[in-house]
Amino acid sequence: MIFNVLLADVFGLEALGTLTGTLSLFGLSGMAIGPIMLSMLRESFDSFRPALLLLTVVTAAGAAMMAAVPYPRKAQEEQGETEEERETLLTAKGDG
Predict the structure, then answer these.
(1) In terms of Cα–Cα distance, which of 2, 4, 10 is closest to 24?
(2) What share of the chain is helix, strand, coil (3-state, %, to 5)?
(3) CA gap 86, 93 in Å, rounded
(4) Considering only CA atoms, which of 35, 11, 37 is closest in space to residue 22?
(5) Among 21, 11, 3, CA closest to 76
(6) How many domains does the chain have?
(7) Other Cβ atoms within 10 Å of 70 Cβ, number
(8) Is the pLDDT of residue 13 over 80?
(9) Tens digits of residue pLDDT in 30-63
(10) Contact 48, 42 (CB under 8 A)
(11) CA distance between the termini of the chain
């Protein structure tokens, strides 16, 4: 629930449905494939150590990629376009 609020705050309501669907696809795919891959690696190496090391590296890479994502709404605000300015422009276009 809070994750959706965070997505809406960062990317806006316009992109919320697309982002939620895409993230759910990847999350559910990982939940389905992860245990199978873990068991295959366990059988190949006779240990969980390589599999858990791989999972650690993949998780760290994912965290680094998430940290590198620009925040679109914050970038717009830094460029000088604030929420109030957008509302003013939309109102002005509607009155004209």
Answers:
(1) 4
(2) 85, 0, 15
(3) 11
(4) 11
(5) 11
(6) 1
(7) 7
(8) yes
(9) 899 989 999 999 999 999 999 999 989 999 999 9
(10) yes
(11) 40
pLDDT tens-digit map of 59-95: 999 999 988 877 766 556 655 556 666 666 667 665 5
The residue among 66, 43, 41, 65 whose CA lies nearest residue 54 is 41
Tokens of 82: 């604030």
* Residue 55 · residue 38 · CB < 8 Å: yes
Q: Closest Cα to residue 59, out of 47, 48, 70, 51? A: 51
- Scanning the structure block, which residue is given the tokens 């494939």? 33
Domain residues for 37? Answer: 2-95
Tokens 């669907």 label which residue?
Answer: 21
